[in-house]
Every structure is written in C-alpha cells, then in structure tokens.
Amino acid sequence: MALRHGFAAATGDFVVVQDADLEYNPDDFVRLIQPFISGECDADAVYGSRYLRSNQFRVDGFYHELGNKVLTALSNICSDLSLSDMETCYKMFRRDVIQSIELKEDRFGFEPEITAKLAKKKCRIYEVPISYHPRTFEEGKKIGMKDALRAFYCILKYNFVVK
C-alpha cells in the first residue's frame, strides 16, 4: 500500500523503489538513472540487477538465489522478457509510466505484478548492475517460502488473467 501511495504522490520525473534495509546501496541511484538521462536509450523502467555482477557482491544463500532465478525465469517465459533479476527490490520508473499502471499487490507480489504490466504495455525496460549486501535470516531478512509462492501466483495472474 505504501508504494501505491508514494507513486500517486510523486511529482518528479522519476520514481525509485528501494528496500529500507539497505541491502541495496543508495549510491547506485546514479546507475539506475543513467539510462534515462544518457540520451542513448528511451527507458521507461530500469531494474537494478543483483546478477549482472560487475560490482562488489556479497554471496547470498544458494536456495534464496535459486528461488529468485526460478521466479525470474518463469516471469520471462510468461512475459517474453529477458531479465536477469525480476525480483530485485531496486527499480526506477518514469513517473508518468508508473502512475499509468494500476497496482494491486502488497509485499513481494509487487515485483511480478509490475513486471507483467510493464511487459503488457510494451514498456522499454533496462537493467544495470547494482551492489548487493544481503542480510541473513538471523540478521532480520523476512522473505520466505510464502512470499515465493505468492510471487509464483502473481506471475501467472498478471501475465495471463488480469488485463
């Protein structure tokens, strides 16, 4: 719900989504905005990818990364995109684009929903490498199997059921 309110209230040219736990480095905003301002491309959205590893990268747990890659692969199959990291919580949008999309999901359902809806609108999505310093579950990471199942459901729902 906070994302929907934030998107509606935004007034700048671009809107960024970043988790509050600082697993993603705010210094990477410069990387995210580059495709918008470089004049070399016509981005509608830019995803920060944890898997385009040209940056410093803390190794995450195998099963967590595998889950992300499986969900990204399923999303790519359903949306005909070729993302390396659909589940990233570090995304930037042109404000007019994000405000034109009706969002329903809370929590981690946002990622597959927005990806499916951007794909259906034929939006131009770019990816850039970002730094990633994951927390462990002992350090307070909250995502789990329930969230993975919800993401799986949302991939199918927003690619095939909801217009």
Notes on the protein architecture:
The chain has 163 residues and is an alpha+beta fold. The chain is 42% helix and 12% strand. It is built from six helices and four strands, in the order αβαβαβααβα. It has helices spanning 2-9, 29-37, 62-79, 95-99, 110-120, 145-161; strands spanning 14-18, 45-49, 90-94, 125-129. The chain has a four-stranded mixed β-sheet. α5 (110-120) packs parallel to α6 (145-161). It is globular and about 40 Å long. The mean pLDDT is 90.
List descriptors.
single chain, alpha+beta, four-stranded mixed sheet, 6 helices
Write the layout of secondary structure elements.
Layout: H1 2-9, E1 14-18, H2 29-37, E2 45-49, H3 62-79, E3 90-94, H4 95-99, H5 110-120, E4 125-129, H6 145-161
Parallel strand pairs: 2-4
Antiparallel strand pairs: 1-3, 2-3
Helix pairs in contact: 3-6, 5-6
In short:
The protein is α+β, with helices and mostly antiparallel strands and 163 residues long. The protein is built from 6 helices and 4 strands.
